Amino acid sequence: MNQVLPIADNRQVLAYAKEIFSRHRWRFLTVIIIHALASVSALAVPYIVGLLVDAVVDGTTRGYVNGAILIVVGAYLLYSFLTREVQLRTRILGEQVFAEIREEFLSSVTSLPLSTVESAGTGDLLSRTTNDVDRIQWVVRFGLPALITSAITIVVTIIMAIIASPLVSLSLLIGIPFITLSAIRYLKRARPTYLWQAQAWAGLNSVVAESVDFVGTIDAMDLGESRRKRMKSIISKDAWDSEVRAAKLRMELFFFLLLGTALPTAVAVVWGAHLISLGSVTIGMVTTVALYTAQLRNPLVEFLMWMDELQVASVSLARIVGVRLVDTDRTPTGAQPEGRDIVALDVTYAYTEGRNVLHGINLDLIPGERLAIVGPSGAGKSTFGRMLAGIHPPTGGSVTVGGVPLVDLTEDELRKEVALVTQEHHVFVGTLAHNLRLAKHDATDGELEQALRSVDALGWVQELENGLETEVGSGAKTLTPAQAQQLALARLVLLDPHTVVLDEATSLIDPRSARSLEASLSAVLSGRTVVAIAHRLYTAHDADRVAVIEDGLISELGTHDELVAAGGAYAKLWETWHRER
């Protein structure tokens, strides 16, 4: 699988984890201290039981037994209180950590260069925003408390066992080879296995997302069987094999883990009996250590179980942190444009290195003019439009506004200068007002209505029961493609840049309504520079100038009448289009 979005290495993931820890250092330390106190209070019980056994063997009083019972009850009450307190604190800490990871990831995703997003495709990015975030959420919310609890319990248990009897606690050593060797083998193979698994799911998600997004096309062209075969191929080739390898990895780990935790208890009893016969230890000491070794099993199993989940989460975190590593496609210099003129000078662009789709285009946009770009499919019209809008930096040459290269402006500065609207649109979950205010957060209802009026959308919005407060998007009111496109154009009106690039922005609206809408937009955008990439030639007819792009070059440039009179490529396009009307 081609990997466009980077994946962070272990060093970068560790650095990010340290950064998160440093922000919550004192909360982490507080949680660890309370966990340690809770573990000591619980693990004091086997120690007291051992003392009680020795006391009973040697002969003791009822008062001593009752006192020991009261201490045990008190220890459990203290353990219950501390456990409740630490679980609450740990859960709150986990939520805070996860919220920061999620918000920083969302910020990184929304800051990605559009060229990177388009190159990566939907599958990889979708997998990172769903599967990877969900895995981290699971580990942070539930694994973090469990890991801290089990780790501290293991350490305190071993210490208490050694305090009870250094000799008997030697039985703990028998489990170390099984646990250590299996853990080393597991950790060596876990990351590549889970990385393979994550990439397989990304590929699967890509097929699912594309199939859902273009279900109409798939149905119309009878591609259902082809898509099913594609999905089965990915499942059998990568997804299934990666899941099987991961399952085998876990089974091997937990087999030796169970062996390593069961043996010490048996050895403690046998070894302890031998030491008792030698008079080296008491029955109470053996009882205490045997109880401790038995109690080690649950926290050790839980610890390694969550370590397994942590390995999966670390791969997910590496993929999430990797998004932060994407290089920006622009370097703001702080230079400010002096004027509104946009100039393209010897612009070349290649999606694949060495294969240019634009071949040295030169164009001076006259401030306030309406320029139509026409040409055959695949000629480079949309690509050049993206150059003019600053979406993609050119491979060679430059595009400047007011003498400043577009790539020298920040995203916010760029959008104040020039904006792009394409035939691709998106309706965000929320109200219509919320969707519109994405372009201007402080816009009044009057400004929203004016923007809708300018794109001929106010009528159908007012017919909705809740008007601007109507909930739209997934799970709410579904807008037609034409309505969604009008919403995108209304956002453009609110954004109010001095230069607008429209890439077939009215293609989803019927021709008669589209021409009416474009006339309305022309009135609203009067005084602004408008570049319209047109597939309906009446757009070119109404423009001030027309540029014809063929094979990545501007072959003709002039007014509609001039180009028709010239009898070139545009004249032929116009004649063919006019005849078909």
Automatic annotation (TrEMBL):
GO terms for molecular function: ABC-type oligopeptide transporter activity; ATP binding; ATP hydrolysis activity. Residues 342-576 form the ABC transporter domain. SMART domains: AAA. It is a multi-pass membrane protein. GO terms for cellular component: plasma membrane. The chain crosses the membrane at residues 28-52, 64-82, 138-164, 170-187, 253-271. Its main location: membrane. The keyword Membrane applies. Residues 29-311 form the ABC transmembrane type-1 domain. SUPFAM superfamilies: ABC transporter transmembrane region, P-loop containing nucleoside triphosphate hydrolases. It is found in: Cell membrane. Keywords: ATP-binding, Cell inner membrane, Cell membrane, Membrane, Nucleotide-binding, Transmembrane, Transmembrane helix, Transport. The keyword Plastid does not apply. InterPro entries: AAA+_ATPase (IPR003593), ABC1_TM_dom (IPR011527), ABC1_TM_sf (IPR036640), ABC_transporter-like_ATP-bd (IPR003439), P-loop_NTPase (IPR027417), Type_1_exporter (IPR039421). It comes from the Bacteria. This is ABC transporter ATP-binding protein.
